[in-house]
Amino acid sequence: MKKMLIIASILVSMMFMQINHPLAMGLILLMQTVIMCLISGLMVQTFWFSYVLFLIFLGGMLVLFIYVTSLASNEMFNLSTKMMMTSMVLTTFMTTMMMSMPQNNMDLTNQEMIMNNENILLLMKLYNGSSSLITILLASYLFLTLIAVVKITNISKGPLRQMY
C-alpha cells in the first residue's frame, strides 16, 4: 500500500510540473496533500498527526483558492492530451515496476504489535499529568489568538472580491 502511494505521489508531482492553470495546480496540490497524509498515517499507525496536517493544509488551500479565483476567475480550463498520455504511460510503467519487485517475508504481526505499543506510549506521554498543563495552556493561547484576530480584522475591507 505504501509503495502505491509513493508511486502516486511521484506521478502527481510530475503532473504538477506540466500544468499552468492556477486552479488545476491547487487541485494537484490538494491531491498531493491527501497522499502525503495517507503515507504519514500508514507509517506511524495512528492517523491523528495526519488529520492535523490535512486540516492545516486545507486551511492554506482555502486562502490560496480565494486568492486565485479573485485574480484568474475568467481563464478557461482545458486538459492537455500530452499530459494525459504521459501520465498514463508513467502509471503503467510504475505499476509494472512495482509488481516485479520482490516482497518482504518479514513477520508483520510482531512488527505491528511493537509499533502499536510504541504509539500508545507516545500518546500517553502527550496527555499525562505533567504535560497536560502545557496542552491546556497551548489550547487557551490559540483560542485567545483567534479572538484577537477576529477583533482586529476590519469588516469593511475583508473580502478580495466585492459582493454586489
TrEMBL record:
Entry EC no(s): 7.1.1.2
Top enzyme category? translocase
Q: Mention one GO molecular function.
A: NADH dehydrogenase (ubiquinone) activity
Which superkingdom does the taxonomy of this entry point to?
Eukaryota
Spell out the GO cellular component terms annotated for this protein, sorted alphabetically and separated by semicolons.
Answer: mitochondrial membrane
Catalyzed reaction equations: a ubiquinone + NADH + 5 H(+)(in) = a ubiquinol + NAD(+) + 4 H(+)(out)
Task: Output the PANTHER family linked to this UniProt entry.
Answer: NADH UBIQUINONE OXIDOREDUCTASE SUBUNIT ND6, NADH-UBIQUINONE OXIDOREDUCTASE CHAIN 6
Q: Which family does it belong to?
A: Belongs to the complex I subunit 6 family.
Protein name from the UniProt record = NADH-ubiquinone oxidoreductase chain 6
Q: Which organism is it from?
A: Eupolyphaga sinensis
